Amino acid sequence: MNLETLRMYLTPLAEGTMWTLALFFCSAVLAVALGLLVCLCRLSKSRVLSRGARLYIDIIRGTPLLLQLFYIYYGMPELGVVINAFVAGVLGLTLNFGAYLAELFRSGIQSVDSGQYEAARALGLNKVDRLRRVVLPQAVRTVFPALGNYALVLIKETSLVAVISVYELMRAGEMLAGATFQALTVYTMVGAIYFAMCSVLAHLFRRSEKRLTVPGYWSGAGENHDISKA
User: Fold this and answer.
1) Of 65, 76, 105, 162, which has fewest CB within 10 angstroms of its CB?
2) What's the confidence (pLDDT) of residue 20?
3) pLDDT on residue 1
4) Nearest alpha carbon to residue 143 among 199, 210, 223
5) To the nearest 5 percent, what fractions of the chain are helix, strand and coil?
6) DSSP string covering 96-117, please?
7) Intervals of the chain under pLDDT 70
8) 29-159 — its CATH code?
9) Under 8 Å CB-to-CB from 154, ≥6 apart: which residues?
10) Residue 160 has what pLDDT?
């Protein structure tokens, strides 16, 4: 493969990679925010909020991500709601991973010792400050390893939005393979790029996990956490 051919392959794949990263970052930020909100609703004393959050989680976890993407992109226009393909992809990934993160955050919050709540209450902290200053920092340490696993899953799951015509790495690979008839070469390059992105992301999470580690503090909830969506 000469330099000109390599450039012809890398240019569309590089552009697709940028869109994949955009999908990942947008979906990750929104999914964390949604997951935390749904988690708080799930833990709420209000039956309406708690049951509503549980229903949302059950529906999302009980249906495939691919179906959810089809429903948003192809189904919603029948109700008069037309959504841009990229926005539909971000929305589908956000709703899907938000449900899983809600349960992850809930397990982290519930793992905080009740004595921490009592100590915070004794210091005169209100409910919001107790959550922000005492509970959430400890919950984040507990779930951080599993959160890293979900991030790795998310960056790979962005490839599914290719089926709704979103131009990202997988879609760029499909188009390039169709134009060059070099499927083996193209998909090997696509796989190498995904592997590189996941390796960098895993490295960043490992470094961050070490910084969050407190001597003598065991983050048991993060170990052996099943990220399977089966």
Assistant:
1) 76
2) 97
3) 59
4) 223
5) 80, 0, 20
6) HHHHHHHHHHHHHHHTS-HHHH
7) 1-2, 214-230
8) 1.10.3720.10
9) 24, 27, 28, 31, 93, 97
10) 96
| DSSP summary character for residue 74 | I
Token pair, residue 223, equals 């170990």
Q: Where are the domains of the chain?
A: 29-159, 166-212
Q: Are 174 and 162 in contact (CB under 8 A)?
A: yes
Q: What is the pLDDT of residue 5?
A: 75
- Six-digit token pair at 124? 């005169």
Residue 2 contacts residue 68 (beta carbons within 8 Å): no
Residue with tokens 């290719």: 162
Q: pTM, whole model, 2 decimals?
A: 0.86
pLDDT value at residue 215? 54
Quick check: 169 and 161 in contact, CB under 8 A? no
Residues with Cβ within 8 Å of residue 52, at least 6 apart in sequence = 41
**Per-residue pLDDT, 229:** 37
C-alpha closest to that of 190 among 218, 162, 217 = 162
What distances in angstroms separate CA 74 from CA 24, 27, 79, 96, 194, one per listed residue?
Answer: 22, 20, 10, 17, 27
Q: Is the dihedral of CA 68, 70, 75, 77 positive or negative?
A: positive
Q: Which of 86, 100, 99, 96 is nearest to 23 (CA)?
A: 86
**DSSP 8-state class, residue 226:** -
